[in-house]
């Protein structure tokens, strides 16, 4: 059986689909026709991931011993001819993706909706880890233009910092809301705006107001005010750190009108290496700003807003678009041009976001700092 699989892998490409879970990963290999070749279940840790790589290389003809399988003489057992498809499940698939890339494997990300569609059309009934992994592998065969995973430490660091700051901001918002309810029970006439409690001056005024108050509400309000102070300091420290990284990695983005420090950091972090997108149209589809056709018969040319794609990246482009419309300039001029052509406000905004995706793509593509960071991460 092993000999037959090795002979098969010499003549065709093998795709390994992965169904990821917190404690285990299941892999199913298929040939270029979608025929199942084998399966393996491992623990969801680096040891299990290494076992999966060695299994694929041994069974499906990786160039581990000959050193010439990838065609460039790397001699590092990179597993040429094998593609790994991973269902894009964020935290569940992140560690597996990193380990596979460090092992020199070719990895693509499969949106969950593609896997679900493939499973619905399969002849096999039911749901199991091998069935899901098989659906992932066949989705890779059906969709040759899936986004390629890239191990870009620079953008990954920014993404983690921005996500952590977002979590702290959300936590601070919850504390602020609780504080305002206690304050309302103490004195209904005092009602500071939620955003004002982010400022030190407002917090000092609230502390003075509560200093001579007694009762459980006053006590809890003082404790919550201290929590707000601590969280605000951490949020501000993170923002300073993020600003320093963005200034080094993507200074050209900061020159784009309407793109602030946090928005630029969100774009770099969610893009995860601009070089993995062959052209700007694929980047626009990844960002969820490419138009979706909805025409039939005599209603040719109609499109609607794209609800898929990376919603964080979409939100960042939306913030830039709205800011440009408010401030004026080229973005406002283009928006007004679309309105004059008969577009609705929603359609004009969509067109502006699509245009901004092209601008952002070219800015990152031509930014020497971004290219250098990506190259260093790949070399590492």
Automatic annotation (TrEMBL):
Alphabetized Pfam families for the sequence: DEDD_Tnp_IS110 (PF01548), Transposase_20 (PF02371)
Transposase IS110-like N-terminal domain location: 82-187
Molecular function (Gene Ontology), one example: DNA binding
Superkingdom, natural source: Bacteria
GO aspect biological process, one term: DNA transposition
Transposase IS116/IS110/IS902 C-terminal domain mapped to chain residues: 252-335
Official protein name in the record: Transposase
Species per Swiss-Prot/TrEMBL record: Kribbella shirazensis
Source organism phylogeny: Bacteria, Bacillati, Actinomycetota, Actinomycetes, Propionibacteriales
